[in-house]
């Protein structure tokens, strides 16, 4: 399955890294799989599964349950306790770094990435920045995952109180979120790294511009599979130049780029 990644500067040296909002049939099916404990147990008890696959199944099941619980809080009437919990959750979620959101969007179903960026940028630099965010993300989220899991038993002691154990559920969510960001980092690094079995190249953009000659040096000819494709975009370059003021992209520019390239405006704005 192919995913489109959009990369462009937003403020000075700060770049935005975002995935187009286009969930695939595979991801939709995965999100709805094993909705009951019975289905989960049947899958786990299968002799063909490895321990790593069983861990993934458990995490997917817990993720689906958390998403359903969050949806219930979101639909709670105004002024109720559940509605206040939802507001607290939004405040905590707003503190999550945009790079974590981006890395979580690189799911295990992704097998190829199409990297769209302004045509004025150097393709090698774009791919190098992607490798950097993947490498750094793997280190950070591995540490944060172990820290969150370590604190879970301590926060569970608060269950004796007559109030919802918010610290426990927050640490549980952070454990899941860091695990997904870690796996997304590893997947992205695998996809954008030089591989002896991949034929990687720049492709012409929609306006018919020619591939950059410097990127043609990265081709590997012993396979027809391309794990990553650089896609310089003249449209993205024009939108960026139209709304950029001294390398700072304004709100209207972010909104227009997000609309044209199917990005989440809130997530992109956080990169500033």
Automatic annotation (TrEMBL):
InterPro entries linked: Mit_KHE1 (IPR018786)
Source taxon at top rank: Eukaryota
Listed Pfam families: Mit_KHE1
GO cellular component, one term: mitochondrial inner membrane
GO process terms (BP): potassium ion transport; proton transmembrane transport
PANTHER family xref list: K+-H+ EXCHANGE-LIKE PROTEIN, TRANSMEMBRANE PROTEIN
Protein known as: K+-H+ EXCHANGE-LIKE PROTEIN
Species, as recorded: Salix purpurea (Purple osier willow)
Origin organism lineage: Eukaryota, Viridiplantae, Streptophyta, Embryophyta, Tracheophyta
């Amino acid at each position: 399955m192919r995913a489109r990644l959009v990369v462009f500067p937003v403020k000075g040296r700060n770049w935005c890294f975002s995935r187009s909002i286009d969930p695939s049939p595979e991801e939709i099916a995965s999100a709805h799989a094993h909705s009951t404990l019975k289905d989960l147990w049947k899958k786990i008890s299968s002799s063909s599964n490895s321990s790593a696959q069983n861990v993934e199944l458990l995490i997917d099941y817990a993720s689906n349950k958390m998403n359903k619980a969050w949806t219930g809080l979101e639909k709670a009437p105004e002024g109720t306790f559940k509605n206040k919990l939802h507001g607290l959750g939004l405040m905590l979620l707003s503190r999550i770094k945009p790079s974590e959101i981006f890395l979580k969007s690189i799911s295990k179903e992704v097998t190829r990435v199409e990297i769209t960026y302004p045509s004025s940028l150097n393709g090698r630099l774009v791919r190098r920045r992607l490798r950097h965010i993947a490498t750094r993300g793997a280190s950070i989220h591995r540490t944060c995952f172990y820290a969150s899991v370590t604190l879970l038993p301590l926060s569970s002691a608060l269950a004796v109180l007559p109030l919802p154990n918010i610290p426990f559920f927050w640490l549980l969510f952070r454990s899941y979120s860091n695990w997904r960001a870690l796996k997304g980092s590893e997947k992205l690094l695998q996809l954008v790294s030089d591989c002896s079995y991949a034929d990687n190249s720049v492709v012409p953009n929609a306006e018919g511009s020619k591939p950059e000659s410097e990127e043609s040096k990265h081709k590997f000819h012993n396979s027809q599979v391309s794990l990553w494709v650089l896609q310089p975009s003249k449209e993205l370059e024009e939108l960026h130049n139209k709304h950029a003021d001294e390398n700072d992209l304004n709100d209207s520019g972010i909104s227009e780029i997000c609309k044209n390239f199917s990005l989440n405006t809130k997530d992109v704005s956080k990169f500033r």
